Amino acid sequence: xxxxxxxxxxxxxxxxxxxxxxxxxxxxxxxxxxxxxxxxxxxxxxxxxxxxxxxxxxxxxxxxxxxxxxxxxxxxxxxxxxxxxxxxxxxxxxxxxxxxxxxxxxxxxxxxxxxxxxxxxxxxxxxxxxxxxxxxxxxxxxxxxxxxxxxxxxxxxxxxxxxxxxxxxxxxxxxxxxxxxxxxxxxxxxxxxxxxxxxxxxxxxxxxxxxxxxxxxxxxx
Length: 221
Description:
There is one protein chain. The protein is an alpha/beta fold. It has a single domain, classed as 3-Layer(aba) Sandwich (Rossmann fold). Helix content is 41%, strand content 21%. It is built from 8 helices and 10 strands. A 6-stranded mixed β-sheet has the order 7-6-5-8-9-10, with helices on both faces. A two-stranded antiparallel sheet has the order 1-4. A two-stranded antiparallel ribbon has the order 2-3. Strand 2 and strand 3 form a beta hairpin. The longest helix has 18 residues. It is globular, with a radius of gyration of 17 Å. 38% of the residues are buried.
């Protein structure tokens, strides 16, 4: 049985058409992983009530993990994390920064945009996590700029990639997700969003993501 708020976030994403399953052509992520499924959390940007509900749940998760006074600055990763960070920063009346994937190619050549003072406590807000490597990279950039970051909150985590937890722990970064693929599959199956073939394919993928990826043209980690 999944928790109520995890199921609710999965329902919202399914209702918005943000959850995709393609058995004909695999999705290939920037990390090289192949997957039969893809989640586009950017869909929430164009909504109103759904966006407010999800941002409220992100805020609840953040307060549960750190407390209302446990952070000074909210950070978003380029580009999908930026709107979520802005909404959360507004919710808590906190300053916001964003982190570039690479240093800007002209001007000051910075990765951090916005004001970040030395030793400020930063929480990273992102839309989605696959294997966690981009979150580790963003956290490293924040630390290199003098900030302190040990927690991130994401709307959706795949939650199945091997060694992700080990790598995140080694980077001293705890990631808190509102929902994941196991929850979303349970909700999708119960509502009839996925047919039997899709449910079977997603289960096979979740059982052994590296093997599934390698068999469908992707990397195995």
